[in-house]
Amino acid sequence: MRVHFKTSYNQDIRLFEDKWTLFVYSLLIILSFLMPYILDVFYLGEMTNVLIWAIAGLGLMLLTGHTGQASLGHAAFLALGCYSYAILVQKGVPFLIAFPLSSVITGVVGMIVAIPALRLRGIYLAIATLAMSILVDDVIVLAEPFTGGVSGIFSEPIFLFGMEIDRWGTPIAFYYVALVTIIIVTFGYANIMRSPLGRSFVAVRDSEVSAQAMGVNIARTKMISFGLSCAITGLAGALMGLFAGIFNNETFSVVISIQLLMMIVIGGLGSIHGAFFGAIIIGFLPQFLSISKEYVGDFIGGSAVAIPGLEFGVFGMILIAFIMFEPNGIYGRWVKIRTWFELFPFYRKGMFKRQKSFLKTERLQ
Amino acid sequence: MSLLEFENVTLRFGGVIAVNDLSFSVKKGEVFALVGPNGAGKSTAFNLISRFYQPTAGQIHFDGHDLLSHKASDVAALGIARTFQNNELFDHSTVLQNLLIGRHRHRKTNFLAEIFFTPSVRKAEIQNREMVEEIIEFLDLQPYRDKMIAGLPYGVRKVVELGRALATGPKMLMLDEPASGLSVEETTDMRWWIDDIRRQMGITVLMVEHDMGLVSNVSDRVLALADGSKLAQGTPAEVQTDPAVLKAYLGEVA
Ligand SMILES: Nc1ncnc2c1ncn2[C@@H]1O[C@H](COP(=O)(O)OP(=O)(O)O)[C@@H](O)[C@H]1O
Ligand SMILES: [Mg+2]
Prior knowledge:
heterodimer; A: about 375 residues; mainly alpha; ABC transporter involved in vitamin B12 uptake, BtuC; B: about 250 residues; alpha/beta; Rossmann fold; 2 domains; 10 strands; binds magnesium ion
């Protein structure tokens, strides 16, 4: 059993609750830096993909999980980040400027989009952002001179410190680009959550009326949340473009928006961990399914079976199962398991009973 | 000297007149109670002060400011804090985090500094926490400090809401039915807290309450409302024996 004693204010503000937590997370970071020496090239590529999805998940988590604004339009911001980065690089802007700049561009556009979207709530906001996601396809086709339209464009390899980095040629270096990005984003995110800004996000999510009575400007808070969320999503988009190499109007379809939202719900809304857990599921599900398809194929005597839409269907079923049995997502389940160990042998059944409530986001108000 | 002033305030919701040509003033440092049957317009008066509703007619002044020229989110900055009749807490946060949101109106850092958690952000956070720990101490909330609101009993939530309002460091505290749903012991605690808030912290209290025992114990003056209009005003004893008030209450019972 572990007991926390608090002796100073600084202790409550710390990113890591105690020395043990600091140790665990340091170990995790060291381990992720050692991944290229542990995994083969194929799985390192999968890992990179998971990291990129997790960055996108963090972007949406800020808006949906922490501020309570559902968005089914985040694929549009992935696209914006991806295209603005690729176009900037084509124009000769170096990586270290183009990458953050594409994030700023996406963030500013997100903030502008937020102005009309702010008038909408819950399901209406979801529908409006969904419409945006659908529109983006046409916009990319119409803006052909910049975007290459249906034939798409190509994201050039990164030039950094005299090195050429791309997913196929230098998978290890590319993995590190994604890893460093996610570490920076996560630290910034965790800092926000221990500051007044993060608290105002949560306040807006849980009760707009009392947030206002506490002096929180609802419209401004939602705008900042949209902006920061899109800025993070833009980074993920730029990396997705680099990962895919070539992309066109169909790369960032509505399906991606939906997948992203499902991912953070399964991972656990309202927690930074949730974005990571969700990304692991979404990243490894196709692998898991193709392996199990082979088994099923062997079992029924044929070769691998092809079932169209299987991946998405399984994903949907997992989502439904989580909403029914574990509305707090994988993170919620993990907290229970951790508590069980921390309190061992004093855990009481039903300890979490009262907490089985839904975030307002999930109810779509 | 009066801190809050209502001048001929009227609010209509379609055909319903929720507040009808209401005038009253709350003096600095007093405990002022609004009483009246359900639907009298008491909570609506609070919501007018919070700027959730725009009055159909009339003026509201607070501490020399024209309240009606302020947005709802700027009311806290003037020094007005409140609780809600049906708890409006941030359910998926801990007690500590709820109280910290009360400090929001004192925020001096911008979001960029907060992303990097600069030393100035840290300093401000430590100050916020010092204030909040005092309130936790004052309201005996230590056992619940790191607990989620969603799992707390009703009585504790009411106290947390009081704490969150106090954390804003207000000049005037508005309490909407602070004792409703509380046990006898909890109501007694509430009584002493309201006394301390007024006497030690020097905060003016405007409250809505049905428990006449509590009202007579803590308040200096009482305003009785019915159907949005003023029925009587005076000391608790005067109002309780006022013929119009008795009629309104008996009328409700009958
Ligand atoms: N948002 C609203 N829309 C329409 N009518 C309302 C609204 N808020 C309050 N009312 C009406 O105004 C009257 C006063 O309500 P309220 O102030 O809540 O009474 P109470 O004195 O019990 O707190 C009631 O008739 C109520 O139905
Ligand atoms: Mg009321």
